[in-house]
Specification:
Elements: H1 4-18, E1 23-28, H2 40-47, E2 51-58, E3 61-67, E4 73-79, E5 85-90, E6 99-105, E7 109-114, E8 121-125, H3 150-155, H4 164-169, H5 179-189, H6 202-221, E9 264-268, E10 271-275
Antiparallel strand pairs: 1-6, 2-3, 3-4, 4-8, 5-7, 6-7, 9-10
Helix pairs in contact: 1-6, 5-6
The protein binds zinc ion.
Zinc ion binds near residues 258, 259, 261, 276 and 278.
């Protein structure tokens, strides 16, 4: 599933690509991809003739600011789910299978929502004074957009008995981190995934905040991670480059790059957790 670095890569590319463009029409093929709406028209009609004014992100969500024909603004929200991609094409170019929603622009380019497993979705929403979709208010601190609030958000874990990995995955506390980057972050910070939040000391919270910033920023620089399934693709269909830098995730049975022990894989709460038992305490 694409996480913060992959979505931020998309956001930056889309800002270059579609900012200021006028939408000729949006067309939906698969109701499940716009399941917050009861009809295709409810989604398509407001977008026809509208303009893309801004491309924002919170956690794993993209929030496009759309200027309507009637001079009002609203948000178009995109969540990629497991396998969603937003891909750019020239009109007439062959588009991939599983293209569920298409946005055709006045300049004869189009943006296509491709999603083989259909867990992703697009929906229209109101916009608030921060320029983000109203529905994204429920998300916690974004570690890249709000780095100065990160340590404070982490310190709130000290009231929780749950394992730190599950706290990192709770999008209402900190948003944008998923299973893969949580394992990389905890390896970098030297903390086991199942350490209860309340057992963490102040220097461990500081270390965790540092690890979150370092890992996510490095992954953004390398345009995110594409795993073996190659499901994560950027707007041009290219894969990311951070998967080759993973130190824990996906490295079961391989040598720990820090202590030369072996990386373990443990299943917990339906998730794979990769860790080094000697480096992570
Ligand atoms: Zn190790």
């Amino acid at each position: 599933m694409p996480e913060l670095p992959e979505i931020e890569t998309l956001r930056r590319d889309l800002s270059q690509l579609i900012l200021g463009k006028a939408i000729r029409r949006a067309s939906v093929r698969t109701p499940r991809s716009i399941r917050a709406h009861s009809t295709f028209e409810e989604f398509e009609e407001p977008l026809a003739g509208a303009t893309v004014l801004d491309v924002n992100r919170k956690g794993k969500f993209l929030s496009f600011t759309i200027g309507s024909r009637r001079d009002s603004t609203f948000a178009l929200v995109a969540h990629m789910g497991m396998t969603g991609q937003l891909r750019s094409f020239s009109l007439g170019e062959e588009i991939p299978k599983h293209a569920h929603v298409r946005f055709e622009f006045m300049d004869d380019t189009e943006l296509v929502f491709v999603d083989p497993r259909t867990f992703g979705q697009l929906y229209l929403d109101g916009i608030d004074e921060s320029g983000l979709a109203v529905s994204l208010r429920r998300l916690g601190v974004d570690p890249i957009n709000e780095p100065d609030r990160l340590l404070q958000a982490l310190k709130r874990f000290s009231g929780c008995g749950m394992g730190v990995k599950w706290l990192l995955l709770d999008q209402s506390k900190i948003c944008g981190i998923g299973n893969m980057y949580a394992d990389e972050i905890l390896f970098r910070a030297g903390i086991r995934f199942d350490r209860p939040g309340r057992s963490l000391k102040l220097d461990e919270f500081t270390g965790l905040a540092g690890a979150i910033g370092e890992i996510l920023n490095q992954a953004i620089v390398l345009r995110g991670s594409s795993l073996k399934d190659l499901q994560y693709r950027d707007v041009n269909g290219l894969i990311g480059g951070y998967q080759d830098r993973h130190q824990a995730y996906g490295r079961e049975g391989l040598e720990c790059l820090r202590c030369h022990g072996i990386i373990d894989r443990i299943f917990a709460k339906g998730r794979s957790c990769f860790l080094c038992r000697s480096c992570q305490r």
